[in-house]
Amino acid sequence: MNFTQNFTAVGDSLALSAIVALIPILYFFWALAIKRMKGHIAGLTTLLVALLVAVIAFKMPAGMAVMSASQGAAYGLLPIGWIIITSVFLYKLTVKTGQFDIIRNSVLSITEDRRLQALLVAFSFGAFLEGAAGFGAPVAISAALLVGLGFNPLYAAGICLIANTAPVAFGAIGIPIIAVEGPTGIPAMEISKMVGRQLPFLSAFIPFYLIVIMAGFKRALEVLPAILVSGLSFALTQYFSSNFMGPELPDILSALVSLFALTIFLKFWKPKTIFRFASEEETASTAAAEQLKEASHTGGEVFKAWSPFLILTLIISVWGIPAIKLALTGHYEGSNIILKGINSLGHMVTFAPEVPLLNNRVFNFAREAVPAVYKLEILGAAGTAILIAAVMTKYIVGMDWKDWCITFGETLNELKYPVLTIASVVGFAYVTNSSGMSTTLGMTLAKTGETLFPFFSPFLGWLGVFITGSDTSANLLFGNLQKITAESVGMNPILAVAANSSGGVTGKMISPQSIAVACAAVGLAGKESELFRFTIKHSLFLVVLVGIITFLQNSVLSWMVP
Questions:
Q1: Cα–Cα distance between 173 and 135 in angstroms, integer?
Q2: Is the Cα dihedral 256, 261, 262, 263 positive or negative?
Q3: What are phi and psi of 38, to 5 degrees?
Q4: Which 8-state DSSP code applies to residue 31?
């Protein structure tokens, strides 16, 4: 049995169909923001609602809908869930062995100010991890680090999600932009240039916005010099690298420049007052800081404490190199002997079985069969790279295998509900895609017309990332629709496709997957509704900003389009 997506399935009307397609999304908003359900309950019930809408309203065969959900759940477990498990595990190893106390002391030696710690860890270090690995690793690791430094878990998770806005479009070695070249036919370099003429405005603004959220406008002005160093160094590097080097390195280079620039700047400049959260007892916090300072550590001890994360960064960076990634997944076809050996191993542990009842049986709006496989790349997954770093950490910190395994078991037990949440919401995303609900919503938004479409174009990307949890997936989902609509309304298609990616980054902080990942990393499993309520207003504000930028670039700033 085959299924052809019908975007006017409800009453032969695109508008009515779009209203019905919104039901699972509106339900999820209600479940988290109003009903405040636990994440796994909200995720599972939203998946059930999506299945009912797909089958009853969009006439998708029930078997196909269920198998589509299973495909999404599998992707939620590997690679996304695997990244969360290994990231939290690595962090717990450093805590259990006392190494994180030294890490905390080393950060405090740069600055005790919570505002500046957020810039260093959430903005710069998180952006580096986004550029190297993507998926959930940046938020998981940087949020855990902030909690270890003494941040409130909810604030740590929310700040890291918002900070992650700046690098998402160039995440995972530029995959979101490289991927959209295929369905659109627009060279990745051209899209990279355009995104690099949109996001730097956001990247320069995000550090200031973060501190305003944390401490208020007046206290943000107190550290304005540091904010400018952090944001402008990142934004300028992002512009130059994206426009003259390509989409692969903007995040990594921008993050490194920002991190080192701010660290060096703080050697010569200090804020007049040290900011701590209202919930912290200043005397106790100061005493703790003094105690850490008194317990001085040698350079070797600091290096040892940071080495798990340095090794993690190195391995993840290697994992992201295109040729090596091909070898790790068994797809390398070159002549390098070492890579051929890795390729043989990668081929043995990479599986792509067809999804029963679904593979090549769903036909999209172009009447093309959509392949459906369970993509299980065990060696090539970023989580495996993090696990290798965890194994190396065991030897560095002198931990025995028994304690190592006990810690891993504790991590699995702590994350059982967050991983269930992730699997269910990714299953929901796959059902909305396979049934045609996502494209129905996109086509409806594309009907806004010549005058308004440039403003609403980024909202398509925002919607795509909210549903799929990935800027790459949102680009693949709506990239070609953006191009076709732009050509029909007289908008430059390069600008529209870039706007999809730039708008998408603002949806990452409210994506059910991202919310679940962040809560899992900071021990807030079951509190996903609180984090969602924290981020939703910031997501809407930032996507409006991207809409304004795109609207202006389509009219008075059209000279910015390559």
A1: 12
A2: positive
A3: -65, 150
A4: I
Partnered with residue 474 across adjacent β-strands are none
**In whole angstroms, what is the distance from residue 402 CA to residue 488 CA?**
63
Query: Which amino acid would we find at residue 139?
Result: V
- Cα–Cα distance between 148 and 164 in angstroms, integer? 19
Cis amide prior to 79 (ω within 30 degrees):
yes
Q: 286: burial class by Cβ within 10 Å (0-12, 13-18, 19+)? A: middle
Tokens of 136: 């959930």
The token pair that represents 466 in the structure block: 């909210």
Per residue in 527-554, pLDDT (tens digit) is 788 888 888 899 999 999 999 999 998 8
- Per residue in 60-72, pLDDT (tens digit) is 999 999 999 998 8
CB neighbour class for 410 (10 Å; exposed up to 12, middle 13-18, buried from 19): middle
At residue 474 the predicted structure's pLDDT band, cuts being 50, 70 and 90, is confident
Pairing status of strand 376-377 against strand 350-351: antiparallel
Check if the beta carbon of residue 184 is closer than 8 Å to that of residue 496. no
pTM over 0.90, yes/no: no
CB 92 within 8 A of CB 399: no
As to burial, measured by CB atoms within 10 angstroms (0-12 exposed, 13-18 middle, 19+ buried), residue 533 is middle
For the chain, the first-to-last Cα distance in angstroms comes to: 46
Strand-pairing partners, residue 373, are 354
- Pair 455, 544: CB distance under 8 Å: no
- Token pair of 145 as six digits: 């680090």
- 528/516 Cα distance (integer angstroms): 6
Cβ atoms 45, 27 nearer than 8 A: yes
Q: Give Dmax over CA atoms of the chain in angstroms.
A: 73
Token couple for 53: 């809408």
What is the per-residue DSSP string for 203-255? Answer: HHHHHHHHHHHHH-HHHHHHTHHHHHHHHHHHHHHHHHHHHHT-SSSHHHHHH
Q: How far apart are CA 40 and CA 421, in angstroms?
A: 4
Residue 516 structure tokens? 């679940």
Cα dist. 363→2, 59, 371 in Å? 8, 13, 9
Contact (Cβ atoms closer than 8 angstroms) between residue 20 and residue 10: yes
- Backbone torsions φ then ψ of 377, nearest 5 degrees: -100, 90
Residue with tokens 């990935």: 470
